[in-house]
Amino acid sequence: MKSRRDFFKLAGLASFSFLGVFTANNAVSQERKRGGSTGAKPEMLDENSSPAKALNYKADRSKITDPKLKTERQGLAFDKQSCANCTLFQGKPGDKVGGCGIFPGKQVAATGWCTSWMKKG
Ligand code: SF4
Questions:
Q1: Whole-prediction pTM value?
Q2: Does the pLDDT at position 58 exceed 50?
Q3: Pocket around ligand 1: residues whose beta carbon is below 6 Å from it?
C-alpha cells in the first residue's frame, strides 16, 4: 500500500517536472521564433550622431549643400553619387536601406551619401 502511494507521488512529480521542462522549452522556442528567422534589422544611422556628422552623412544626399563636398569623384558627378552605388553599401540592388561598411551595426538609406563614398566597381 505504501509503495503504491509512493509510486503515485513519484508519477505525479515526474509529470509535473515534464510539464515544467516542456513549458520552458516551448517558451524558448517561441522567443527564438520572434527574433529568429527574419532577424531584427539594425536601426537606421542617425544623421546627427557623431560618426555620421564626422563623415557628413545625410540620408538624402540632396541635403548636402557644401560645395566643397559636392564634387566629382572617380569620374562620377556628385548628383550621381549615393549609397546605392557606393562600394561600401551592403544592400542589394533596389533596396531602400542597407548596411554600410563604414557604420557597422547601422543601416543607411540608398539615397544617402557621405564623404567616404566610393564608386561601386
Ligand atoms: Fe553611404 Fe558609402 Fe557613405 Fe556608407 S560609405 S554611408 S554606403 S556613401
A1: 0.70
A2: yes
A3: 57, 83, 86, 88-89, 100, 102, 108, 112-114, 116-117
